[in-house]
Design a protein that fits this description.
The protein has helices at about 30-35, 40-45, 55-65, 75-85, 90-95, 110-120, 125-135, 155-165, 170-185, 195-210, 215-225, 225-245, and strands spanning about 15, 20-25, 25. It is mainly α. Strand 1 and strand 2 (about 20-25) form a beta hairpin. Strands 1-2-3 form a 3-stranded antiparallel sheet. Bound molecules: acetyl coenzyme *A and (2S)-2-hydroxybutanedioic acid. GO terms for molecular function: ATP binding; ATP citrate synthase activity; metal ion binding.
Length: about 260
């Protein structure tokens, strides 16, 4: 019979051995000929399946809306400083990417985890928020440095509008909105932010599309796929900021003394 040599790597998402590479079994030519987009490619390579159009469109909207948020945010600032230190594209990009985490852009997975847990356990927004407070954990997906109850994040509104029109159910998002109503009653900066909107809406996408089993949803949430959306999206902007600084021939950045409180 056949003797199977042991392998050092197992891979299940792509295969380049044939005439043309395949993503989750779908040949490149099919992707091009059917006019598929980056949302479809993400579906194949991350979720290992083709998703309905409204899902891939939602993924693409997340990517477009999170691509950049100006030069002042943590990621862009790091990238700009690095580019101005004369570093190459990859160094400037990763310097910005390394700021993505629990406070900045990387709260999507935790938002999904906590909103799902609270919703599935039938916690009222009051019980959820106050239990987080007792544990000393800030609610992921809530709060923003500049957005306020009277100056909402347009990105959140756009995502919500799309989902309300196209998703079969937006129960997790509605729960996140109820949480926001409660947190806004405590402080005006405690809005549902773009991480919280994507986290809650992705729960709706996963559970409402009928494309994933409960076990698969739990695995996606546990592994933490969703911060990948922000990482991927923001790379577009960070690459843009690198080119911008190089084009402008900006000199080495040095922070002004006046802006530092020197104290003992
Ligand atoms: N949940 C509960 N209370 C909060 C939260 C929250 N998510 N955010 C702020 N607060 C309250 C706390 O009482 C906080 O006091 P503390 O420092 O004693 O905990 C108080 O508001 C003031 O907080 P600040 O630190 O002044 O708020 P800041 O504007 O600096 O923080 C931030 C903004 C980092 C986004 C914060 O709200 C937070 O950590 N949110 C959770 C993580 C998150 O969702 N990050 C993604 C943001 S969107 C993006 O990056 C694309
Ligand atoms: C972003 O998308 O970078 C922002 O929401 C963060 C910020 O501070 O504006």
């Amino acid at each position: 019979g056949k003797v199977r040599a042991p392998t050092h790597i197992i891979s299940t998402i792509s295969d380049d051995r044939g005439e043309e590479p395949c993503y989750a079994g779908v040949p490149m030519s099919t992707i091009v000929e059917q006019g598929l987009g980056v949302g479809d490619v993400i579906s194949l390579l991350w979720f290992k399946r083709s998703l309905p159009r409204y899902c891939t469109q939602f993924i693409e909207i997340c990517i477009m809306l999170c691509a950049d948020h100006g030069p002042c945010v943590s990621g862009a600032h790091n990238t700009i400083v690095t580019a101005r230190a004369g570093k190459d594209l990859v160094s400037s990009l990763v310097s910005g990417l390394l700021t993505i985490g629990p406070r900045f852009g990387g709260a999507i997975d935790d938002a999904a985890r906590y909103f799902k847990d609270a919703y599935d356990r039938n916690l009222t927004p009051y019980e959820f928020v106050e239990s987080m407070k007792k544990k000393g954990i800030r609610v992921p997906g809530i709060g923003h440095r500049i957005k306020r109850g009277d100056n909402r994040d347009k990105r959140v509104e756009l995502l919500q509008k799309f989902a309300r029109t196209h998703f079969p159910s937006v129960k997790y998002m509605e729960y996140a909105v109820q949480v926001e109503t409660y947190t806004l009653s405590k402080a005006n900066n405690l809005v549902l932010n773009v991480d919280g909107a994507i986290g809650s809406l992705f729960l709706d996408l996963l559970s409402g599309s009928g494309m994933f089993t409960k076990q698969e949803i739990d695995e996606i949430i546990e592994i933490g796929y969703l911060n990948g959306l922000f990482v991927l999206a923001r790379s577009i902007g960070l690459i843009g900021h690198t080119f911008d600084q190089k084009r402008l021939k900006q000199p080495l950045y040095r922070h002004p003394w006046e802006d530092v409180l020197y104290t003992k």
